Prior knowledge:
By secondary structure, this protein is an alpha/beta fold. Helices cover 39% and strands 20% of the residues. The protein contains 23 helices and 24 strands. Helix 7 (160-190) packs antiparallel against helix 9 (270-283). The mean pLDDT is 86.
Amino acid sequence: MMRSLHRWPGLLAALLLVVLSLSGAALSLFPAAERLTSPQLAATLSVADLAARIEAVHPQVEQIRRAPSGRITAYWFEDGAPQAAIVDPATGQDIAAADPNPFQRWLTNLHRSLFLGDGGRLAMSAGAAAMLVLALSGAGLVARRAGGWRRWFAPLRGPLAGRLHVEIARVAVAGLLLSSATALWMTASTFDLLPDRPTSPAFLNDASGQTGASVAVIGRLKKTPVAELRSLSFPDPGDAVDVFTLKTDRGTGYLDQGTGAVLAWSDLGVWQRISETIYMLHTGQGAATLGLVLGLTALGVPAMAGTGFVLWLAGRRGRPRIRGNVAAGHAETIMLVGSEGGSTWGFAATLHAALSEAGQTVHAAPMSAFDPARYRQARRILVLAATYGDGDAPASAKGFLDLLQALPAAPSTPLAVLGFGDRGFAAYCAFAQTVAETAAAQGWRLLIPFDTVDRQSPQDFARWGRSLGAAIGIDLILAHQPAPPAALPLTLLSRRDYGTDVQAPTTILRFALPEIALWRRLAGHGFGRFRAGDLLGIVPEGSAAPRFYSLASGLRDSFIEIVVKKHPGGLCSSQLFGLEPGDTVSAFLRHNPGFYPGCGHTPLILIGAGTGIGPLAGFVRANTRRRPIHLFFGMRHPTSDFLYDAELADWQRQGHLRHLATACSRGRMPRYVQDALREEAAEITRLITRGARIMVCGGRDMAAGVSAALTDILAPAGLTPALLKAQGRYVEDVY
């Protein structure tokens, strides 16, 4: 609901909002410029002194006005023609013409009404209303994505367009809320939809009949500082009953032109003060700094419109359209989806179609929209949940566990949980498992036992579907065809072969960086944004399942590099080994934020063996800030398997790599990388107690050996690998 409330006003009113925001941002400059160019008033200057100085220069002065910026403008008649000028309050002399700025006037008309009169004002007020809805719904979505209001500024992940959209919103939302709300108030005031109370006192015809009082000696004018003045209108000396009209920040009054006595006075009421404050907040008149801040926030609107449109397009491309989605209150089956990249939604669409064909009414929604109170006719709830990173909730499941745990009692509707993941990762379906365990602890009855789908397997999904169909009494056939990823051709630039002499062929493949469209860069698609540690997906000929290789390069390197070991009978590795410079292969990118080194200058301990050196070499290559990096690398033999040997030597000389320790499993004195760690146990302990982060990449057996060695090394310091993992200081990318 909130997403729709945010999406459609944004899409429908995007152009209008861009015009509204850009014109408003431009207008915000004028109050500041006016404030900077206006002569500064002396703190002790009174209205009487100012009026006397101007009257000495312009004897026929009719009115003096002070703008919120402090600018003083005098109006008079000369040779029967009206004149006006900006004056210096210190001398009363003219310093500039008072002609309105034509560009400012043009911008104002554009901003207020699109040059269309009242109809244009209504259109712009509709734009302001859309902005208010967008700001409120956007704030709610940001809080949901961040994991709550207290985590408003929590780090983000995901495509560049999404991160830019949210980061701008975080900063700009308060200003946009203020601008849109005040705009609606001013529109309502323009169309007399708000109470209108008189601001001037009732005029009483009790003037003395005298004329000629000098403004310099009128008591009320002497007591009123210029800083409070809004306007002073002079009486006609030929009309004995005419009066001075004084308007200040406090109120409005009439002064006798002969005696200077106050004939009537009316203080500003609460309503007028509110209206004037709102005008100031919206226009910046009288608050130039605030106006500039609001103008800057307004500049975020075009950026958010652009990134929002890119996200909308990406969502339409990456998330399948679910047809016949029944409202939550009328559905027999509630299907909740937790997805990070969109692939789980593909399975959800297949399930939705199959259930609908079997005569079931189905409602599909993100897990973050979980609301049992709405499921009035539900007979079952199905949860399809992927896992992000090391057991975390995916993007569309943020807050689900909190909602589940906050329930006063478990729903009577039975639950089925299906996890999606990759058994190659330690946290296989960990989030879905947590959902199932939490629901069981709450007393929620399970429709069928918890199950998983490995590597998007259609067979696993079909098997689970048969179990679900048997439980609800229908013949449920789930024939899911995963959508092929959008791949791009990569051209091989060079290859470096190792290990052929020891029957363990390994190669470093370097591909040219493909051309990427701007919108794909913003959306994070293709190869518009990547770093070492991300994954290169390759779909080999004869298979629908992609193979993933850790990247040894980042976007700044201007090439794509992977390390590949040839496996006997390996479909993908055999094809890659057959590539020669100039050949192409289709590939796609998958971000892997759980295996990034992070920022800062704390020491980094990199541990890898064999092809696991790939991303670690990429981290060292990118270490231009000379963060202390200690690399432990295991290989078979230095003459055949020392991957990146020349580069590592160069990186050491350049300061990218502080220390290198190698271990060879073949030769006279075979040892493994965990043995190298034990030999430097004291230094390892010292680095970790200083806050060092450990990153392990390679085979599962190697990773287990490293964990065992570190357990022994860290025991005297009261630390364990499990504790470091919980702190985010020990991460693995194993296979």
